[in-house]
Amino acid sequence: GEDVEQSLFLSVREGDSSVINCTYTDSSSTYLYWYKQEPGAGLQLLTYIFSNMDMKQDQRLTVLLNKKDKHLSLRIADTQTGDSAIYFCAENPGGYNKLIFGAGTRLAVHP
Amino acid sequence: GAGVSQTPSNKVTEKGKYVELRCDPISGHTALYWYRQRLGQGLEFLIYFQGNSAPDKSGLPSDRFSAERTGESVSTLTIQRTQQEDSAVYLCASSLDHPTAQYFGPGTRLTVL
Questions:
Q1: What is the 3-state secondary structure (H, E, C) of B53-106?
Q2: Nearest CA to CA, how far is B92 from chain A (Å)?
Q3: Closest C-alpha among B36, B44, B40 to residue B90
Q4: How does pLDDT run across A27-72, given as a tens digit for each residue?
Q5: How far apart (Å, rounded) are the C-alpha atoms in residues B14 and B60?
Q6: In DSSP terms, which residues pair with A56 in a beta bridge?
Q7: Range with the lowest mean pLDDT among A82-91, B17-26, B95-104?
Q8: Which residues are paired to B6 by β-bridges?
Q9: A-chain residues within 8 Å CB-CB of B99?
């Protein structure tokens, strides 16, 4: 079946690195995504990784993909208070455009 | 350019009523999606339109839900005989014919009393 799981909450100190983890079930997904949702705002695509890649780096963001274990992670370096938001992991089962989302991880950044 | 817009931003209705939610996708985007987000939960896929192909309706929760799209422009999601469990934020997204980037609108918050 289609299921994406994430831990619900993560708290980090400002300046530290944050690592948000996600597991997915459909090995036919061609892309894995990370979206960010800030309070009162819509979803913003943060980054995505093609399924044949192991890692993708984009400024402070690093995405790691372990396809064997169906595990995806998002690392945010030098976490800032502006990074406080809910982060959603998503997959596209069968390689189609429909996305299956996790329940989201709420990241809280404290001084 | 303009992003995805949705109207209304908020809708409060009574149980049993009919509601219509509207989505204006980004111009030129051939694909359009509707999702539902219940409080504290992730997004739940509802329906997907791609050009003139038959829509993927596999996520619609019941026959009270339906959606239409005119060509590659506006889409409306309708809910008949609304129930309290329909209360959620309904999000619309659009993309070019490529799965890498879906752009989301701000959503319509539906409250069924």
A1: CCCECCCCCCCCEEEEECCCCCEEEEECCCCHHHCEEEEEEEECCCCCCCEECC
A2: 10
A3: B36
A4: 888 889 999 998 877 789 899 999 899 999 999 999 999 999 999 9
A5: 21
A6: A63
A7: B95-104
A8: B23
A9: 30-31, 92, 95-97
Q: What is the pLDDT of residues B22-51, one digit of tens each?
A: 999 999 898 999 999 998 788 899 999 988
Q: And the tokens for A98?
A: 């429909």
Distance from CA of A67 to the nearest CA of B (A): 18
Two structure tokens written together for A26: 């459909």
Name the residue with tokens 């984009």.
A58
Tokens 């999606």, residue? Answer: B33
Choose among A46, A44, A39: nearest CA to A75. A46
Tell me: cis bond preceding B8? Omega within 30 of 0 counts.
yes
| HEC readout, A77-107 | CCCCHHHCEEEEEEECHHHCCCCEECCCEEE
The half-sphere exposure of A12 on its side-chain side, counting CA atoms within 13 A, is 22
Does A42 contact B107 at a Cβ distance shorter than 8 Å?
yes
